């Protein structure tokens, strides 16, 4: 039908966009693609999608696809669309998902299906201000305006469980203890190979500390691609696991922690010079690297709210302390994996800072955006925690840099952090804080907690 053809005269399409859509049509024919999944991240970093038959793709690629706003702005319980202290009329409205066509990829593990990552807009054409991907892209734009670019990669821990069994009326999933044994090799290989064909380059994978726990590290990429890769992996790993009757979970339960690390370095806009690296083999940050680290340390309290956004995520902050504490100081060091910020000067990637405040539950777009905002503030600020300290690890501590152990206190810190409020936007901060307060005020029962785990699985 001409109604779904880009040759229809009622479409007025810029030539580059028209050429890209035509190229994708050829790809779909070649790869026998019959369905396209339009995906966007919700506040938790979980994929929300709507699929269409391939014949509608040319039109939807231009005009987008509508989706209820409440699908992306949701609480922990998908049945609840109300958040205390917020007007909820917006939950009843539609928004438009506009695809970023450079992210179009056939899904290796889904028959005749492709996927494209989208940005949400209001029906008036304005970006959705609570969109984590929009916020991250805006921070990357600020970075470019100042003559910088960011090379980054996530490292995730996640758990593989067997299919849930009902035992004595309780739903229980057993971890797969010998993940890299011979009978699991097919699952691992399909996951790594499938991700590569999706444009997600996994540098390494291994068993981790816990039973059924894996660690995976991505190859670093410039710009939004690192967060896109993490988002793609979080969804794809769950889908591939289900093919093998496993369940993949990034959720952190009490006593069992899945970390989410963002390794990153600052470069010039050409991507040729690492601005953290002194060029020598000594363990030392450049002056601009020290300022960036100062910004991370200064905003650690607010950063922790976005990077460890659940009560169970925050208990690891106090694991080294016998006495109960309300907050702990962020730490940094060279080649020290116990620190909040681990500076690595070895390897082919050059000097990089690992932001280790995060859990795998955190939204990768928010982690990327907040890290950039904090680092940029350090560069622009005259205050430097590292001044007159040489490169010793004795940090001049300030109360504002301390990390609250309670999520309630971290929410206060986020709300009071003027830099992150301005960077992420008052609309987002207001919504995020209200959503988390709602979650805290409505603690789940055991059965509801299992539903919550399924949500993140």
Automatic annotation (TrEMBL):
Annotated GS beta-grasp domain residues: 31-125
Domain of life of the source: Eukaryota
GO BP annotations listed: glutamine biosynthetic process
Domain spans labelled GS catalytic: 132-457
InterPro entries referenced in this protein's UniProt entry, alphabetically: Gln_synt_N (IPR008147), Gln_synt_N_sf (IPR036651), Gln_synth/guanido_kin_cat_dom (IPR014746), Gln_synth_cat_dom (IPR008146)
MF-aspect GO terms: glutamine synthetase activity
A Gene Ontology cellular-component term: cytoplasm
Family (UniProt): Belongs to the glutamine synthetase family.
Subunit structure: Dodecamer. Interacts with BFSP2 and VIM.
Protein's job: May act as a component of the cytoskeleton or as a chaperone for the reorganization of intermediate filament proteins during terminal differentiation in the lens. Does not seem to have enzymatic activity.
Protein name: Lengsin
Species: Sarcophilus harrisii
